[in-house]
Amino acid sequence: MSDSKDTKSTRDKILEAAQELFSQKGYLGATTKEIARASGIAEVTLFRHFPSKENLFENVIVTRSFLPALKDLLPEVEGMPYEMALNVIAKRFLETLSSKKNLIQIMHSEMHRYPEKIHMIHNSIIDDVIKTLASYFEKLKTKGLLKDFNSELGARAFLGMFFSYFTGQELKKRKKYKGDDTEMTIREYVNIFVNGTLKPVSRQERMS
């Protein structure tokens, strides 16, 4: 049991150091030797956990994406009124993006130079996030609470609104000139989405 805990601890240290260095130098600039040094281990030990730099980067993307947080969050919000649940999801999504801001920024700047497999992993994670949120919409539709719409396109639209906001505020530094209006933006975007997807007969219940 102790070995298992040590192994998990080492793996987590590698992932944390890798995220930090990939955020600073990008996938192309960071080396496994630097990541191993920052993790306090030998490079050969790093390769026991992750056979290649590409595999390590894949694991950073997967474990640090919004997908694990969303999967944990959906059971918590399923009993909430629709509008309240979407507010919680949106807030957590923006928090996740903000905590990975540097990594997201550098990935966008060098994405065109990544190996094809990295592109496939990245797109697969986006698809999984969309499908996971879409499954929440599907459950509400079966209960008769939502209009009939394409759930995956709805999930893409919902997350896209907030990713666009994050891009403008954090990556393009709009917040420096316009201030932080995150709470108002979440409230207004969610209201727009709710009014477009909630059945009219259910609107009186959405805040109950």
From TrEMBL:
The protein's matches in InterPro entries, at most eight in alphabetical order, are given as: Homeodomain-like_sf, HTH-type_TetR-like_transc_reg, HTH_TetR, Tet_transcr_reg_TetR-rel_C_sf, TetR_C_Proteobacteria
Instruction: Write out the entry's keywords from A to Z.
Output: DNA-binding
- A Pfam family reported for this protein in Swiss-Prot or TrEMBL: TetR_N
- Which PROSITE patterns would you find in this protein's record? HTH_TETR_2 (PS50977)
Which N-terminal residues, if any, form the signal peptide?
A: none
Which GO terms of the molecular function aspect are on file?
Answer: DNA-binding transcription factor activity; transcription cis-regulatory region binding
Name by which UniProt lists this protein: TetR/AcrR family transcriptional regulator
- This protein's species is hot springs metagenome
* Residues annotated as domain HTH tetR-type: 8-68
